[in-house]
Sequence to fold (226 residues):
Amino acid sequence: MNSVKIKSICTIYKALFSCIFPMFFVKQIFSFCALHSLQNMFKSCKITYTDMHAACKKIFEETGDPVSNHESFGGNWSVAAVLKAITMAGYEVVQAVETKEQRIWAAASIPELMEDPEFRGIIIHQPHRHHFTCLRTELIEDKLKLYLVDSQSPGPLCISPKLAMQRCISTAYAWEAYIVMGPEMETVLPTVPAVMKQYKRDPKRQRVKPPPGFLEAYNKLKREEQ
Fold:
């Protein structure tokens, strides 16, 4: 089967799944949050466990830093491994947050990025949890919206660009943000159908206790908006 036919089939499957599953979402299995954050951001499972391991080996070849410092048997990967996997796939990575006297957003704003067709999304590393998630855009009723896509959550959640940036620079959250730029990735559907799930909002909203500093950061954001 030639590449043209394969691309056509992928396009058909993508259109089919866009009807059945409104949003691409890979639910976490094992400790693969780093891998799933890439898959959810790119809306494709082209990057696999093998690619993550290859990224760790590449780091060892370039720096001498052992693979074991970047990959565990349980599937935990370092930030360096995640970023290396992205660049090895042919994409550009830009660190969005810098820390000097305070945390600042040092790149183009998210609303500006959302207007760029090369913008694929943002990989988020939450150091306090050593957890990876992502931000990506979705076209909803002809409007481009930003979504937080966490493989441990029930599904993608809409988030305002301003709030997302605030969580990155706020010490209460301290999200480490890595902007990913490049062409749309080839569509590769999950090999395990169960991990491709339709997102449905739970009518019964669960009560959760906000993390320390959340209300302070939220009230500060609201005051800035006024």
Observations:
- The chain has one domain: 3-225.
- The first helix runs from residue 3 to 20.
